[in-house]
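Take a look at the protein record below and tell me what you see:
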Amino acid sequence: MTRILLLLSPLLVLAALVAVFALNMDRDPSLVRSVLIDKPAPALVLPAVAPTGSPALTEGLLLGRVSVVNVFASWCVPCRAEHPFLEALKQATGAQLLGINQKDAPENAARFLAELGNPYDAVGADADGRTSIDWGVYGVPETFVVDATGTITFKHVGPIDARSLPGIIAAVETAGS
């Protein structure tokens, strides 16, 4: 009997793996459930990205109104592609848009924003990536919706595009109600 179980164990493991993959086939990889959802946002205190003229990210900036926090970098190709959708998101919702520039040279970030336009109300330089780690970011771009109490209500992983924009707009509207 033990011999039969040993012979069948690889088949059982394979069947289990097939079941796991089959259950996750239609899952949208941009909808990552963050452990920070429904929890207070980590501190967001970063110096301004010089020389953009944009204000720094300061204590209390996430309180009193709905905010969208977007983590980006000039070296990130998908960040370039999502940029027009950030502008559309800001126009559609009126939410405060805050940028965390992750591990980027200030002159490159300034050039990126000068070339594409600066949709952010404030942009902070996360030179060492510590703030991004606190926010649970593991790649750029990532976008968070924070309600007026400073609680993270939504996270989107990857670039915002035409397909994901309506869901993010809905998340901002839900956070504001």
Q: What stands out?
A: The chain has one domain: 29-176. The longest strand covers residues 96-102.
